[in-house]
Design goal:
Length: about 80
C-alpha cells in the first residue's frame, strides 16, 4: 500500500541540513512532492531547521515553502 493509506496520525518531517547543493536540493524537492501527494490522507508538517546566521538555508526553506502545498515551520537554531 501507499504511505497515506494506513497512516492514522500526523506526519512531521524534520529537515536539518548544514549544507546542500543543486543535486541534493532536487532530491529534497522530489521527496516534498511525494509527501505533497499524500497530504490530505494524513496531515503533514515540515519543520525546516536552520542556523541563526545561515540566510541561505532560511531562503532555501522559504523557496520550498512557496512551491510545495504543505505547511512549513521555519525553526531557527543556535549554531551546531
Amino acid at each position: 500500500g501507499n504511505y497515506g493509506d494506513n497512516s492514522k496520525s500526523d506526519t512531521v518531517v524534520n529537515i536539518q541540513l548544514e549544507y546542500f547543493n543543486t543535486s541534493s536540493s532536487k532530491c529534497i524537492l522530489d521527496v516534498f512532492k511525494k509527501l505533497e501527494s499524500v497530504n490530505g490522507k494524513t496531515t503533514i508538517t515540515i519543520n525546516w531547521h536552520y542556523e541563526e546566521d545561515d540566510e541561505d538555508m532560511l531562503e532555501a526553506g522559504e523557496d520550498y515553502q512557496a512551491i510545495i502545498n504543505i505547511p512549513f515551520k521555519m525553526i531557527e537554531m543556535e549554531e551546531m
